[in-house]
Known about the structure:
Low-confidence stretches: none
Distance between the termini: 9 Å
Mean pLDDT: 82
Number of helices: 0
Shape: globular
Strand content: over 45%
Amino acid sequence: xxxxxxxxxxxxxxxxxxxxxxxxxxxxxxxxxxxxxxxxxxxxxxxxxxxxxxxxxxxxxxxxxxxxxxxxxxxxxxxx
Length: 80
């Protein structure tokens, strides 16, 4: 799974199973606008969500054109 985001430092990919959300993958301290999540086994949860837990501070990474203190998820790519 590839996520195109410019402002997210920390996030969790969560899946819902039997009504409960469980963390499948966690990213902490991200400094790139593209996040690649690689899985050891297929993700089969019927419902997924991306839970953003920390954003980059205002102005950080402004030289790259991102990091304005608001949430931003531009695109998601998923491959089998």
